[in-house]
């Protein structure tokens, strides 16, 4: 079969994410439509599988969405790309207007990917603190960051520096990653009657550590950076919104900026339009990506408040020192703008609420398995945590036998279904995850 030949051509030629060149062979994609992927394995077997991953959390509207397809075709008929230096265009301006309205922030910087948007956010925070000092309103030397254990913010060097220092990639690049400060992972939270609930004493102790850490290092810190309420690639961990509220307060008290990384959580995934709304917190800087274009093209954005931007504009440097070649790519901006239009219709709220209810029911049987430590659900996020590391190839294959595509990691089998998933889709996803966990791990 042509797809089997494709897999052979791929092996040893292409690196795949976090995989060796001679790793387990990938599956070939023949097509994608709605919530389904058409796949072929290295043995020539074909699968029609529900995409339980939304292509790493990005394809929230599903595949071949007619509105997004039309936006892509229409813009390609005008122009596909122009440099953003000295030029502007309607898709970029319209998307920036939509994003500022949605977030309550005032200024937008378009980036190529989520990691790059984090790099830009960190640069902006340092430039802000330098500008404050140059304008006689701040302290010198504020160029470090306070992040959370368990956090993940991307694979580029500055982003790696604020990822978890133990479970991240620090050990592979010890001479290249800046040494930042880290707080313990905040106390866990669980959804109870629509509210994220945590142990109050544990939250109070964590806040005390936050306050003392910032007090001790205030002179060197530029900003606090967090994934609000949900830590994604660091463990699919849900934490107390009170921790985010405290981070906002402490940042204000010490003249630090608060950066929220909403790349994975933004645009409705957790049941709120942005996860920081679980704590009713307004950040100084926000990063968005992944679902921004509905999974069609790579695009991310860094947004900031007028107060932050004003300091940069008034300082001697004046400009934000970054400028990707494909910044504000018109095709990506046009599709993203159409995706934002779909979200503005409001149906995502009912969709995510329905997925939440279906996931709670569909994943509940996993708790009867000896291998399962915990099941947790928030919005359109479902997590089955095992006591042991997942056998990724075996679980992936077992889930495919039940018509479900998953990509587990560490000790987690999880799902982030497209928002258009039906109750039957979610029930199938849950049954496939439970069956795969039982078959492989017992």
Automatic annotation (TrEMBL):
The keyword S-adenosyl-L-methionine applies. GO terms for cellular component: cytoplasm. InterPro entries: Aminotrans_3, Aminotrans_3_PPA_site, BioA, PyrdxlP-dep_Trfase, PyrdxlP-dep_Trfase_major, PyrdxlP-dep_Trfase_small. Pyridoxal 5'-phosphate binds at residues 114-115, 261, 324-325. Its cofactor is pyridoxal 5'-phosphate. Coiled coil: none annotated. It catalyses: (8S)-8-amino-7-oxononanoate + S-adenosyl-L-methionine = S-adenosyl-4-methylsulfanyl-2-oxobutanoate + (7R,8S)-7,8-diammoniononanoate. One of its GO terms (molecular function) is adenosylmethionine-8-amino-7-oxononanoate transaminase activity. Its EC number is 2.6.1.62. Pathway: Cofactor biosynthesis; biotin biosynthesis; 7,8-diaminononanoate from 8-amino-7-oxononanoate (SAM route): step 1/1. It is found in: Cytoplasm. HAMAP family: BioA (MF_00834). Belongs to the class-III pyridoxal-phosphate-dependent aminotransferase family. BioA subfamily. Homodimer. Catalyzes the transfer of the alpha-amino group from S-adenosyl-L-methionine (SAM) to 7-keto-8-aminopelargonic acid (KAPA) to form 7,8-diaminopelargonic acid (DAPA). It is the only aminotransferase known to utilize SAM as an amino donor. NCBIfam families: bioA (TIGR00508), PRK05964.1 (NF004624). This is Adenosylmethionine-8-amino-7-oxononanoate aminotransferase. It comes from Arthrobacter psychrochitiniphilus.
């Amino acid at each position: 079969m042509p797809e089997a030949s494709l897999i052979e051509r791929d092996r040893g030629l292409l690196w795949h994410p976090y995989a060796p060149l001679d790793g387990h062979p990938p599956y070939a994609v023949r097509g994608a439509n709605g919530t389904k992927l058409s796949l072929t394995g290295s043995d020539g077997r074909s699968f029609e599988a529900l995409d339980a991953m939304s292509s790493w959390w990005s394809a929230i509207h599903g595949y071949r969405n007619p509105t997004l397809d039309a936006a892509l075709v229409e813009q390609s008929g005008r122009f596909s790309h122009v440099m953003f230096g000295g030029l502007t265009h309607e898709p970029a301006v319209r998307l920036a207007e939509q994003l500022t309205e949605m977030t309550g922030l005032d200024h937008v910087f378009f980036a190529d990917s989520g990691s790059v948007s984090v790099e830009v956010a960190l640069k902006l925070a340092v430039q802000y603190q330098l500008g404050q000092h140059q304008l006689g309103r701040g302290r010198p030397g504020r160029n470090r960051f306070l992040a959370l254990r368990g956090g993940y913010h991307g694979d580029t060097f500055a982003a790696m520096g604020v990822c978890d220092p133990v479970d991240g990639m620090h050990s592979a690049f010890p001479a290249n990653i800046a040494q930042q400060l880290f707080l313990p992972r905040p106390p866990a939270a669980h959804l109870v009657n629509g509210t994220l609930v945590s142990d109050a004493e544990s939250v109070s102790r964590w806040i005390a550590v936050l306050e003392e850490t910032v007090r001790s290092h205030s002179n060197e810190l530029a900003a606090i950076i967090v994934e609000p309420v949900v830590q994604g690639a660091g463990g699919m961990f849900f934490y107390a919104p009170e921790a985010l509220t405290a981070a906002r307060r402490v940042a204000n008290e010490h003249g630090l900026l608060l950066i929220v990384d909403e790349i994975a959580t933004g645009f409705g995934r957790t049941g709120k339009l942005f996860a920081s709304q679980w704590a009713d917190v307004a950040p100084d800087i926000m990063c968005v990506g992944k679902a921004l274009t509905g999974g069609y093209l790579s695009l991310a954005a860094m947004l900031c408040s007028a107060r932050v931007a004003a300091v940069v504009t008034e300082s001697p440097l004046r400009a934000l020192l970054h400028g990707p070649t494909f910044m504000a790519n018109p095709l990506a901006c046009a599709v993203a703008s159409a995706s934002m239009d779909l979200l503005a219709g409001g149906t995502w709220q009912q969709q995510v609420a329905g997925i939440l209810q279906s996931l709670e029911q569909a994943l509940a049987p996993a708790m009867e398995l000896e291998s399962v430590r915990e099941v947790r659900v928030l919005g359109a996020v479902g997590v089955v945590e095992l006591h042991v590391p997942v056998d990724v190839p075996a679980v992936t294959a077992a889930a495919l036998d039940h018509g479900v595509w998953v990509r587990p990691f560490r000790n987690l089998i999880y799902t982030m279904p497209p928002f258009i998933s039906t109750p039957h889709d979610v029930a199938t996803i849950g049954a496939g995850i439970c069956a795969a966990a039982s078959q492989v791990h017992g």
